Amino acid sequence: MRKEDKSSIIEQIAATVKEYSHFYLVDMTAMDAEATTALRRECFKSDIKLMVVKNTLLQKALESLEEDFSPLYDTLKGSTSVMFCNTANVPAKLIKKVSKDGIPGLKAAYAEESFYVGANQLDALVSIKSKNEVIADIVALLQSPAKNVISALQSGGNTLHGVLKTLGER
Predict the structure, then answer these.
(1) pTM for the whole thing?
(2) CATH domain 3-126 topology
(3) Domain extents in the chain
(4) Eight-state DSSP code of residue 153
(5) Distance of CA 58 to CAs 8, 30, 80, 96, 101, Å?
(6) I need a labelling partner for 55 at 20 to 30 A (CA). Which of 62, 84, 113, 133 fits?
(7) Rounded Cα–Cα distance for residues 108 and 118 (Å)
(8) 157 compared with 144, residue with greater pLDDT
C-alpha cells in the first residue's frame, strides 16, 4: 500500500472517530461469512457503523486525535473490527444478542468518555443508560409527587372537607 493511501485511510478513520461519540473494538475472526453478513445487517438496523481496520492504521488514527486513547492500544492485536455509534449501549446489546460462545468477542470500548478493556466489561456496557433513558427517568421522578397530589385530590371527592380528610390520612 502506498504511503498516500495509508495517510488518507488514517484521516478517514480519525474523522469517523470524531464523528461518533462511542466505539467498540471487536474480534470477529471466528465468524463465518453468513454470521458476518447477519451482524452487518443488524448493525445497519441499529445505526451502528461497522468497519474492519488494520491495527496499525487505527492506532495511528487514534494517536492523531487530541484525546489519549493509549489504554486501547494493547488490544490492537489480531483481527479488529470497529463499531461506531452515538448511543453508548446499543453496540453492547447487539454483541450480547448476537454472540455465541463469545463470538464476536469484545476487545475494548470507548463509551461515555471512559475506557472498557476486556470481554468481561460487556455487562457493564449493556447497563449504561442512554441520554434519552436518563431523561425519561428524571421526568418520571419529577412527575411522581405531582401524580400523588392529583390522585389524593381526586380520590377525596370534590369537597374541601374530603380533600383535607384524604390528605390528612396520607
Answers:
(1) 0.73
(2) Alpha-Beta Plaits (3.30.70)
(3) 3-126, 131-169
(4) H
(5) 12, 21, 9, 24, 27
(6) 113
(7) 5
(8) 144
